[in-house]
Amino acid sequence: MSRTILIVDDEPSVCQLLKDRLTLEGFECKTCSSAEEALQVVHGTDFDVIISDLNLPAMSGLELLEAIRKKCPQTAFLMVTGVDDVRVGIDAMKGGADDYLVKPLQLAAVVASVERARERKQMEIELENYRQNLEQMVEQRTKQLQSAMKRIERTYDETLEALGAALDLRDTETEGHSRRVSRCCLEIAKAMGWTTEQQKQIARGSYLHDIGKIGIPDAILLKPGETHGRGNGGDANSRPRRL
Q: pLDDT digits over 74-87, tens only?
């Protein structure tokens, strides 16, 4: 983070006192006498910390705090008040202030408060950057996973087609039977109003309903047998007709 500080107070002596001490601590300081002037300055410069008096002419320190939170959410804000009242500090903290200081100011306490606020803001920035990077990483990994699942699905379908082709090679008389059964099952599933995913699964399952034929020896698989319609004139040596 930078080490720039904007001091806002309508008392020139307070501005000068804070500027002198914080400059000794290595900060680059700029001063303003009103909230309106501060908003103009902030518009063109990014400040690390803003130290503002609560009681300012026209626009109060709390109103300035609200405006700064909208324009520069990553800028640390310290509220200065002459009222030693915890409720004032609570209101300021609820409004988004990182800390509050009570007049008369203890310069050592001011420096310590500035450093704490800077560290807190730095941690918030790092956390936000980590969150954004994490979201991008999750999105990237999700896309990779989806792509991998699509590749697996394509490979699975290609494997089914290869197995179906192997079945056809084993039994040429029923070539194309598995594809025809699969198409019939798919049309039935559509007519029953099944979802696209359900139709996909039934088509795959039906495609392999004869998968066991791969393990059957040719002597059994290709052995001539009776037809179901032998009594109606079928050939006793012919094999049953398949779909």
A: 899 999 987 767 78
